[in-house]
Design brief:
single chain, 319 residues, alpha/beta, Rossmann fold, 2 domains, 4-stranded parallel beta sheet, 11 helices, binds adenosine-5'-triphosphate
């Protein structure tokens, strides 16, 4: 393979730049020409494709976001629109494509692979909700951002004897809420995968107050309900001073953590290796700290699950 391209798609995640850098550098090391597609699938269709030089990815490894930019492109589900993108790649003689993104981006990648562009997916999303990998690029950085926020909230919560509700990202996956709740010592974690009765939570807070507890922290994933709704529901059962913190997009930004940079570099390099070996239609990942590859078909035939042992532990530790 002489020419490949790389793009970032879907929601941005810290570490995407490090992944693109690894793809570009690894390919160049092996005398493969690399093109960057700006603005995700939209850029593929509008021909926003540019040749990368060694220096294009210089000074990017430490930056959050994605310098290639990302865009939502719902039209990409249409085969005729995708064909435009395929034609653009073929005109430049590009045979292989690396897509860094989440679940939706993988669907586009799978289609492209079926339609003649050899494609590899790299899991880039803070949600950690992709099958075929233990961790997605961006999860660790987002997790650390949330933990830092919880630590700060804990200081003020205990000074004023308040209950704080921290709303974190996670529409369908509770990983960010569970991991941050466990690491931040939250009293309650609400995840989309499990239903918890608000009355139970109120009773627990009440018992804590009676034992002399100075504060309570509840971490709620946005997919369960909003922090404000959680506060309103709690008020039906208990009279406590409640404050809500919605962390929002700050969870997506920031310089990638060491773990995310290393993960992104390993996965970026591995994606190029697979293309060089003519292996395609695969997503790369990390499983038991070993590089792994999974076909898109297998990725989509399984559903992401929460670590139930960890969920049980978080309940046990927050008595
Ligand atoms: P995140 O998890 O951060 O939301 P994502 O990759 O899941 O990332 P989406 O917006 O779902 O983000 O998908 C990104 C892009 O992938 C879409 O804008 C669209 O261009 C493309 N895409 C999504 N689903 C399909 C599909 N079924 N067929 C072809 N392309 C798709």
């Amino acid at each position: 393979m002489k020419k490949i391209a790389v793009l970032t798609s879907g929601g941005d995640a810290p570490g995407m730049n490090a992944a693109v850098r690894a793809v570009v550098r690894k390919a160049m090391y092996h005398d493969i020409e690399v093109y960057g597609v700006y603005q995700g699938y939209q850029g593929l269709v509008t021909n926003n494709i540019h040749k990368m030089a060694r220096g294009t990815v210089g000074d990017k490894i430490q930056r959050g976001g994605t310098f290639l930019q990302s865009a939502r492109c719902p039209e990409f589900k249409d085969p005729e629109v995708r064909q435009k993108g395929i034609d653009n790649l073929k005109q430049l003689g590009i045979e292989g494509l690396v897509v860094v993104g989440g679940d939706g981006s993988y669907r586009g990648a799978q289609r492209l692979n079926e339609e003649g562009i050899k494609t590899i997916g790299i899991p880039g999303t803070i949600d950690n909700d992709i099958n075929g990998t233990d961790f997605t690029i961006g999860f660790d950085t987002a997790l650390n951002t949330i933990i830092e926020a919880i630590d700060k909230i804990r200081d003020t919560a205990s000074s004023h004897e308040r209950t704080f509700i921290v709303e974190v990202m996670g529409r369908d996956a509770g990983d960010l809420a569970l991991w941050s709740g466990l690491a931040g010592g939250a009293e309650t974690v609400l995840v989309p995968e499990h239903k918890k009765e608000i009355k139970e939570i109120a009773d627990k807070i009440q018992q804590g107050i009676e034992r002399g507890k100075k504060h309570s922290i509840i971490v709620v994933a946005e997919g369960v309900m909003s922090g404000h709704e959680c506060g309103e529901q709690l008020k039906k059962y208990i009279n406590v001073d409640t404050r809500i913190s919605v962390l929002g997009h700050m969870q997506r930004g920031g310089s990638p953590s060491g773990l995310d940079r290393v993960l992104a570099s390993r996965l970026g390099g591995y994606a190029v290796e697979l293309l060089m070996n003519d292996e395609t239609g695969l997503a790369v990942g990390i499983q038991n700290n070993k590089l792994s590859k999974t076909s898109f078909d297998d990725i989509f035939s399984a559903t992401h699950t929460l670590d139930e042992q960890m969920y049980a532990l978080s309940n046990e530790l927050s008595i």
